[in-house]
Amino acid sequence: MYPLTPSDYARPFLTWQRIADWAQKHYRSRTFSKDERIPVRTGLLYLVERGAVRLVSDAHVIASQRSQEPSESLAEAANEEAFLGFVGAGQPFEIIAQSPFALQSYAHVDQTSVLWMYWQDLDNWPHFRREVLDAFRYQHQRKLLWLSTLGQRRTIDRLLGFLILLIEEFGQPYEGGYYLPWSLTHAQIGSAIGSTRVTVTRLMGKLRQQGLIRLYKDGLLAIPADIVQQQQA
Amino acid sequence: MYPLTPSDYARPFLTWQRIADWAQKHYRSRTFSKDERIPVRTGLLYLVERGAVRLVSDAHVIASQRSQEPSESLAEAANEEAFLGFVGAGQPFEIIAQSPFALQSYAHVDQTSVLWMYWQDLDNWPHFRREVLDAFRYQHQRKLLWLSTLGQRRTIDRLLGFLILLIEEFGQPYEGGYYLPWSLTHAQIGSAIGSTRVTVTRLMGKLRQQGLIRLYKDGLLAIPADIVQQQQA
Question: Which of A200, A207, B12, B136 has the fewest Cβ atoms within 10 angstroms?
């Protein structure tokens, strides 16, 4: 879909096949099953060859741990894992910064294939290096938009903004609009927008009633075409 | 400060003086007063020469506008502006994506000086181009950490995580720890973490009582050194 994405940033990597062959030959490629953790090292560059990667973080929640309020479960707080977005096929990712949140990556779907290289390896492919850096520029801008939606006070606004941004970036067209090709649990959505599974379920019902979101096939999230167009106006 | 920043990403731009001279000569440099809007065009690259830039977004809040709940003021919702972060001296910024949130930039302090160029201009300085792109990689990672903190359910955790991240990145050392060299209103903080000015004021009091944050001089935000070290551990 990418209705709002400059075509410059959505283009596939030109030298992709050459890179994939190189990675295969140098044992720098591996396939993961759904929800398997992808081990990631600082200083390496990763590329999603097939499937989709889910970025998450483990938050160390120190304020409420210290406050010791009886209503707050420490065990629950300590395990809070935030969904930070997808990395689709053809896209790069890396993990540099670590503290106070540990960033991690998981295969979001079965048969997710990832290859990796040192940044120096890219010296052999200067044009590709530029495309990778442009892809990071684009991802950075998307995260600014994401931060914009999370700055909103009302959870329903954060939720709708979040869903629109995700489907804008990764959505596939169908007769009723655009759908997100991967499933996302209400708990995962809640972890991204600072809310709970229960609240997300309730607000999703409200958004569906208002016709702002839809479900496609087996419960995939979808947005009517006119909602996206309204956003573009 | 940058206690958690790889030195690779915190280094000043080597060819900075040459770029600044070039910008001066080609009338690509301008100084702004505090809170003056910096006009930014898609496709151009901006560099902060002096001072600090504040990135914000205007959210188009469509879900709660449609819901027409009496408790929600439409005028207020329509003007919701989210604080998205600072760009400090020596750092680049750009604005590509626009919808559904309009990103904008303001001078955060007086005498903020910004220069700009086309991306093609960087072809003359390939090494500098690489540093700019590495700076964007670093900014992207910081935004992932920021998203991590905003995924937390409790506002006090989002608030403390937000303050720690800001001070980690921009803080200056003093005898009591590290302080943020620029002021930030409680309303601006609220707009970043999905909360209100009133709630931020209340929770800041709580964090100060717990010794997790401090005030430096005329109300600048500060964090004791041991809190930062605890986060690094």
Answer: B12
| Cα torsion A120, A121, A123, A127: sign | negative
Interface of A with B in 82-121 (CB under 8 A): 82-85, 94-101, 103
CA-based nearest residue in chain B for residue A144 = B84
Which CATH entry fits the domain spanning A151-233: 1.10.10.10, 1.20.1530.20, 2.40.50.1020, 2.30.29.80?
A: 1.10.10.10
Instruction: Identify the closest residue of chain B to A159 by CA–CA distance.
Output: B63
CA A188 to chain centre: 11
Domain A1-143 class, CATH top level = mainly beta
Among residues A128, A130, A150, A135, which one has the least CA distance to residue A195?
A150
Cα separation, B179 vs A20, in Å, equals 47
Cβ <8 Å between B142 and A192:
no
Beta strands A214-216 and B29-32 are unpaired
Buried b / exposed e along B96-130 (16+ C-beta atoms within 10 A): bbebbbbbbbbbbbeebbbbbbeeebbeebeebbe
Domain B1-140 - what CATH class?
mainly beta
Q: Chain B neighbours among A 16-55 (CB < 8 Å)? A: 55
Task: Of B113, B117, B133, give the one whose Cα is nearest residue B38.
Answer: B113
Predicted confidence (pLDDT) per residue in A52-65, tens digit: 999 999 866 556 65
Can you give the residue ranges of every domain in chain B?
Answer: 1-140, 151-233
- Contact check, Cβ <8 Å, A95/B151: no
Go through A100-137 and write b for each residue having 16 or more CB atoms within 10 A of its CB, e for each that does not.
bbbbbbbbbbeebbbbbbeeebbeebeebbebbbbbbb
DSSP state of A120: G
Contacting residues of B for A77, CB less than 8 Å apart: 154, 157
Strand partners of residue A142: none
Strand partners, B161: none
- Say yes or no to pLDDT of A110 above 50: yes
In this prediction the pTM is 0.88
Angle in degrees, CA A202, A207, A210, rounded to 5: 130
At B103, phi and psi to the nearest 5?
A: -85, 140
Residues 191-210 of chain B with CB under 8 A from chain A are: 191-196, 206-207, 210
